[in-house]
Every structure is written in structure tokens, then in C-alpha cells.
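Feature request, filed as a ticket because there's no other form

It would be nice if the structure record came with a short human-readable summary line next to the C-alpha cells. Right now we just get the raw output. Example of a typical job, pasted below so the devs can see what we mean:
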Amino acid sequence: MSNIEKISSKDALGNKISCVTLTKPFFKKNGIADNNSKDLPFLLSEFKGLPVQYMNQVHGTSVKVINDSVHEPIENTDALFTSSNKVSLAIMSADCLPIAIANSEGTEMALIHAGWRGLSSGIIDKTLTMFDLDNKELKAWLAPCISQIEYEVGNDVYEAFINSDEASIKSFKKLNSKKWLFDLKAQATRILEKFGVSVSQSNYCTYNDEELFYSYRRNKTDKRLLTLLWRKDV
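Raw output as currently delivered:
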């Protein structure tokens, strides 16, 4: 039985930047039954004294700049950007794709909640405009999400992407006249690389690995995984 408590970006991001996805075993070990409260008691040593900034995610394209954390989740937002080492950015997900981005110096970072609506509407493009790109390489890490083989969508999703960017067809596999399999990570990677961002990713599928992940597509759960992005003290 798998008991991995967190999936880590390891060295995929910028200097002193860390990103982890907390899994079902983490919440079970720490006796956290309601992990959608946005007020969780974190027991990881890395977070001692470091506040966590949540969002009320709506599958939109709003990006908020964070300097200091506020107790309440930020309304109607799906991406956070900061240059502070005084806050951890947070995303709650159960199949959508969390995207962590940081510059190579570790002085700027962003965390994006990317479902198909946000991707098709340009949330990655909008988030990247927040970074100072002068002589600073950007790196991205794609956290666990649903894989293409399990993500069936209709013509409405296919057309939303193709109508705005015909090259998006590379992220779709046709099942029949009305259904497609869509690859969230392939689409995000293509967009990021178009802007010169180096991309690394986890190879987990939230739908397939029931021991590790919550999945809304699998069983309509209201529980969520938690992905956290922060910069260690310098």
C-alpha cells in the first residue's frame, strides 16, 4: 500500500523555491478529516510560522499579487504571484492541474490552478506577465492531476481551445464524433514552452491512484489535495 505523504518538486524550480502536493496519506496520518476548510493545522517543519494563502478558485483567469497573507481566502482567483518569503501560496485540487512557476534566482514565484477553462482562457499567459523577465530564466513544475487517458471531454471543450489556438489539437485524442481525451499537462507544457519556460512534471494521475489522491471525476468527492509553494528564508 502506498503511503507517500507528499509529492515534491525537488530541484525543478528556482533557488530556494519548494513546492509539494500533500496527499491522502498526509491528511489521514495527521487526523484531518475535513481538508477543505482552508484553515488546516500543518505539521510540516517547513511551515512553522509561515502563513498559507488560499484562494476561492472559480476556474477563471484572475491573478492576484500577494505581499502578505490575509486570513480569508482571496475571492474569485485562480493564480497567486509573490516575491515574498513570508507566505506560502496554496491551491486545492481534485483533478485540475496545479502549476508552480519561479524564476531561477528564486525571487519571484506563482501558483496557478488550471482546469480546462482557465487554460483555454489564457491564465498561464496572464500569470507570466507578472514576472520580471530581464535575464532571469523561468522554471515550472506541474503537480499531480488527471491524466489524458482518464479525462474525457466534449466538443465544447475541444472547440474552446481550437477556436483560440489551432495548435491545441496536439493535446486532444479523438474518441468519437462527440468525445475527446484531453491532456492538461501537454497543453500547459506547450503554452509554457512557447514563452521559453523550462518545464518539469510529476507523473502521477489523480484519477488512477486512489490510495494517494482525491479525484472528483472518480467519485464526486468534496475532499481536496493541497499544493503549496514557498521560498525558504534567505
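Something like this underneath would help us a lot:
The first helix runs from residue 24 to 29.
The mean pLDDT is 91.
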